[in-house]
Amino acid sequence: MPSPREVFEKLLNGIVDQDFASLSTLYAEDTVVTQMFIVPGPNRIEGRAGLEKHFGTVPPVKMAARNVVIHETGDPEVVVAEWTYDVEVIPTGKKFSTDNVIVARVRDGLIVESRDYHNHAVFADAFRA
Fold it and tell me: Distances in Å between the alpha carbon of 26 and those of 12, 73, 126?
């Protein structure tokens, strides 16, 4: 059974590798993901099917992760990760960097809950024509 750290590492590697088709398999069927800073909402994605739909809408980008720090907590199910994405928007060549934090609860090798702190405004701005 993969540890919470290992599950997060698979998630981050899948995002960077653009393996969006299989990312939802890292989540429990009844998972809840809350994207804390997304405006306007909805900021809550429920279930593996909701995540499959969400990952299917990712625009064409190249992403690299750096400064990855994974914090294991006193709760054996919870992992906190922080990192920086370096992003290039493929259609325009626009580049930017943004910091991120995820607090994830992993049970039986699957993410059952995640609170994601990403700067959605910088992503939205990068895709404006």
Answer: 11, 20, 28
